[in-house]
Every structure is written in structure tokens, then in C-alpha cells.
Specification:
Layout (H helix, E strand, L loop, with lengths): L10 H21 L6 E6 L2 E7 L2 H4 L6 H13 L7 E7 L3 H10 L3 E6 L1 H6 L5 H8 L14 H13 L7
Parallel strand pairs: 3-4
Antiparallel strand pairs: 1-2, 1-3
């Protein structure tokens, strides 16, 4: 058994927190909230964010378990990043959740079932991963760029802003 002095990285704690993520996934399915996914965010050995898939309950395609947990944890921390946190997800994060997790910058991500396991029950994100490799003009949802110069005005204002918070 691997265990170090940081209680959020040891096997025993990992198992405890993964159990909670899985419990949330099962509870959410039984309640009809959405797909079979749960997540928790842990800091200093304490859960500071919990989430289960709420896509159906909230009628929100972004209400994935990880997104719900990230939002709650950030509110608890009073910050937009998850510095020093570990995220436990009952399943491998989809591209949207993985992107959000990278923006939130937790110390570590731990997951249970794989994206291949999810694909076997019709939660297949492979097409999104493939779409990201295509130029925007070649994607399945028609995507076009327009008014670039006008849009760059916001970038110029940001670039010159003295009191900006970088993230």
C-alpha cells in the first residue's frame, strides 16, 4: 500500500474519495438527474466540492459531475483555481470536463471507469476528441470565423489592462 504524509494522495484516502464519487454517480442515476457520473474535489483531506451529472435535472448540457464539483469547490475556496486539490471522478473526464480541469489546475485527477467503458453504454466522446484535431472549417457543426479585427479590440484592452488577474 502506497501512502505518504499528504493524506490526499495516499491509497487509503484515494479509495475513500473515489467511493464517494461513485456513490454520487449511483445516487444521481437512481434520482434521474442524468448520466452515471459523480465527482468530488478534495483539499487537505476534506471534500470541498461534490457533483453528480445533472444534465437532465438542470436541462444543462454542461452540468457534468466534474463541472458541478468544480463550481462548488471554487465557491468554497473563493477562487477560480483548485490549487492543491485532487479531483476524483467516477469516470474518465470528457473533453469539456478535462478542459475545465486543466483551467482549474488541480494538483491531480483520479478516475474510475475509462472513456472506453463509457462508450460501451453510449456515452462516447471519441467524436469530440476527433473534432478537436480538425480545422474549424472541417468540423461537423459548421463553424466560421468573422469580424476578427473587431474582436481583437477586447484582446488589446486586456493586454493593456494594468490591474488584470492572469489565469
Amino acid at each position: 500500500m502506497w501512502l505518504n504524509t499528504d493524506q490526499t494522495t495516499g491509497f487509503m484516502s484515494d479509495e475513500k474519495f473515489m467511493e464517494e464519487a461513485i456513490r454520487l454517480a449511483i445516487e444521481g442515476v437512481r434520482a434521474g438527474h442524468g448520466g452515471p457520473f459523480g465527482a468530488v474535489v478534495v483539499k487537505d483531506g476534506e471534500i470541498i466540492g461534490r457533483g453528480q451529472n445533472r444534465v437532465l435535472a438542470d436541462k444543462d448540457p454542461t452540468a457534468h459531475a466534474e463541472m458541478v464539483a468544480i463550481r462548488e469547490a471554487c465557491r468554497q475556496l473563493g477562487h477560480f483555481q483548485l490549487d492543491g486539490c485532487v479531483v476524483y471522478a467516477s469516470s474518465e473526464p470528457c473533453p469539456m470536463c478535462l478542459g475545465a480541469l486543466y483551467w482549474a489546475r488541480p494538483r491531480r485527477i483520479v478516475f474510475g471507469s475509462s472513456r472506453e467503458d463509457a462508450a460501451r453504454i453510449s456515452f462516447d466522446d471519441a467524436f469530440i476528441y476527433e473534432e478537436l484535431d480538425h480545422h474549424h472549417s472541417q468540423r461537423h457543426i459548421p463553424t466560421q470565423q468573422m469580424m476578427r479585427e473587431k474582436a481583437l479590440e477586447a484582446f488589446k484592452i486586456w493586454e493593456n489592462k494594468e490591474d488584470k488577474t492572469r489565469y
